[in-house]
Design a protein that fits this description.
72% helix, mainly alpha
Length: 127
């Protein structure tokens, strides 16, 4: 991995998505819906989160196919927008899934095992 600042760092785009897009779109929209008692339920949020994660993985498949599928051509490089789009959809999907996952673990796990269950959920949510 090259650390030269002239090269784009796609991993940093996640924070751009969080602060510039997710705050006004996701959080304000959910707050607006909650004040009107029309907040989507847990199954809908989980379903939308899983769909967003799936779209992100489909973008990676498209990047692989652009390079030539099973027989990749070393001279062909996949477009960087595939990676940025994957970060976008995975970030938004995680914003919908993570809070629900923690809530469900806290609600469903026996009281004695709640800290351990939350500890098992964190590595998947942080990655």
């Amino acid at each position: 991995m090259c650390s030269d600042s002239r090269f784009p760092q796609p991993g940093s785009s996640r924070y751009l998505f969080l602060y510039c897009i997710a705050r006004p779109c996701f959080f304000d929209a959910l707050t607006f819906l909650a004040t009107r008692n029309k907040e989507p339920g847990v199954p809908l949020k989980m379903g939308l989160g899983m769909i967003m994660l799936g779209v992100g993985f489909l973008l990676m498949v498209m990047a692989c196919l652009q390079r030539g599928g099973d027989n990749p051509d070393e001279t062909v490089k996949a477009n960087l927008l595939f990676l940025v789009g994957t970060y976008l959809f995975h970030t938004f999907g995680e914003l919908l899934l993570s809070p629900i996952g923690f809530s469900m673990v806290t609600r469903l796990a026996p009281v004695v095992f709640v800290p351990a269950a939350d500890g098992c959920l964190v590595p998947g949510a942080v990655s």
